[in-house]
Fold:
Amino acid sequence: MSAEDNEIWQSYANDGAEALRDIEESLLVLEGDPKSSANINRLYRGLHTLKGNSGFMRLAQIERLAHVSEDLIGLVRDRGVALDDEIIETMLKVVDRLGEVVGAAGNEQRDAAPERVADLVAAVSAVTASRDPKRAPPAPAVAPRPATPPPPAPSPAPVMYFSEHPDSVGP
Structure:
């Protein structure tokens, strides 16, 4: 890697650390004041910055975790979803993991392994889906009921021979 490449990676790590500080500080304030729009916006901006920088660096796994987290906070910011304890606890876990993978990416100059973020991507996505019906996973397909067989056809009328018919004229 060239000195310029090293500088770019270092800049990514520094910007990521700054965004993570903003995110964490916002969460700590929001624990006591979950309706603070200034801190909700600051939290959202930090996630948005981290997502964008990770995308620019082609760090798909880090970008993915930042993206689903940004989506969740977007529900709070834009749709009036209450910032409850479950969201805050989930986001604090996200901040810890993002701190680990962003720092490692800056040092190792590569993306996180998918398994480093998959559990939290799933957890954040589940919390998001539980708050936003549009993002809920599709309901399992219901097997169609078997068609009710048609009723049996009526039995044919008994066959009567001409000689047996009551109106017949006999020999």
In short: The CA atoms of residues 34 and 84 lie 7 Å apart. The helical segments are 3-32, 37-56, 60-79, 85-108, 114-131.
